[in-house]
Design goal:
This is LAFE_0F01266g1_1. GO terms for molecular function: metal ion binding; metalloendopeptidase activity. About 65% of the residues lie in helices and about 5% in strands. With about 325 residues, it is mainly α. The chain has a domain at about 75-185 and about 230-335. Helix 8 (about 170-185) crosses helix 11 (about 255-270). Bound molecules: zinc ion.
Length: about 325
């Protein structure tokens, strides 16, 4: 993906007739070239580049479960501060719609989430500080107008919108969504995104100095770096989530069915007049996701069978039938 895009970029940039972008006072490109001809500037650039590379290499670490190497410099305390700030802001926006902690639905979803957390604690490859040092808490946002969504903030605050529960359909489906969101935090994807932000800004500034075309550069950055990185993190959260939910004795096969239901929902929501579903639009194409899930099933089944899940068949009981909460199913416009 990245290679193909890079090839396209090379073609545009170097093989096509030079594209010039008109703008006022277009002399920054020349200044940048002059920088390269000046010995002192070149020395500074070399120090900057060397220092930057050293910083990058010394801040590479391995993601849990997937083993992917990624760059994170953001300290944990700052990541938690960002989580705290977001939490306060979201609580302010959703106040009045959040079900109380003793509501049966909050308790039910919390219990499923707890099973996922407990299973992750048993995984020897996961740094336990990322789980035990966090105060996990589930909030159900019961707002029928809100599109289906679920997310977790750094610091362990989980938000589940009641409109997603009908698509989840049962506990295994909900475990798929919860373990996916949990995995984003476990793999510190927020910290990874924030760590990359200054790099994108620097690359953006350099591109702007060279080409002077802001919109073109933004498209390049998004196409070559931001979007592939975001899709990679989504796929990683799918993989880690599937492994953890299987350890937690939730049926991994249901994750495939859940994403099939999501795909159907996605199709319906594309109809004119339907609300754009952010949860889906920021995630990879459902078909690709279903293929991935299917290819990971053998490994997931292995973990499931190693977890002595034996007689626990009750998890598969219909989630909807267990609760008569009116807002549990998406309203009729969703067709579920
Ligand atoms: Zn996600």
């Amino acid at each position: 993906m990245f290679k193909n895009s890079l090839r396209t970029f090379s073609k545009v940039r170097f093989n096509s007739p030079p594209i010039t972008y008109r703008r006022f006072n277009n002399n920054q490109g020349n200044s940048f070239r002059q920088l390269l001809f000046d010995a002192t500037s070149r020395r500074y650039l070399a120090i900057l580049f060397g220092g930057g590379s050293l910083f990058y290499l010394t801040h590479l670490e391995e993601a849990p479960v997937s083993g992917r190497t990624r760059f994170i410099w953001l300290p944990r305390w700052l990541e938690l501060k960002v989580g705290e700030y977001s939490y306060r802001s979201i609580i302010g926006q959703t106040r009045g719609s959040i079900l109380p902690p003793n509501h049966p639905l909050t308790q039910k979803v919390s219990r499923i989430f707890e099973k996922i957390v407990e299973a992750a604690e048993k995984d020897p490859t996961i740094d336990k500080n990322l789980i035990t040092g966090v105060k996990w808490q589930v909030h159900i946002v019961d707002d029928p107008r809100a599109p289906p969504n679920a997310f977790v903030l750094p610091g362990g605050k989980v938000f589940v919108f009641s409109s997603i529960l009908g698509i989840c359909k049962n506990e295994d489906g909900l475990a798929t969504v919860l373990s996916h969101e949990f995995s984003h935090q476990l793999a510190r994807h927020t910290a990874e995104n924030l760590s990359k932000a200054p790099i994108y800004s620097i690359i953006g500034a350099i591109l702007y100095t060279v080409t002077g075309a802001d919109v073109f550069n933004r498209l390049l950055l998004d196409g070559l770096l931001r979007m592939p990185a975001s899709r990679q993190m989504e796929t990683e959260a799918d993989y880690i989530g599937l492994m953890i939910m299987s350890r937690a004795c939730f049926h991994p096969e249901e994750s495939v069915r859940l994403w099939q239901r999501m795909a159907e929902f996605e199709q319906q929501s594309k109809r004119p007049g339907m609300v754009n579903v952010e949860f889906l639009s920021t995630h990879p194409a459902s078909n690709r996701r279903i293929e991935n899930m299917e290819s990971w099933l053998p490994k997931a089944r292995e973990l499931y069978s190693q977890s002595n899940c034996g007689g626990i068949g009750g998890y598969y009981d219909s989630f909807q039938s267990a609760f008569g909460v009116p807002s549990f199913e998406p309203k009729t416009i969703w067709g579920f």
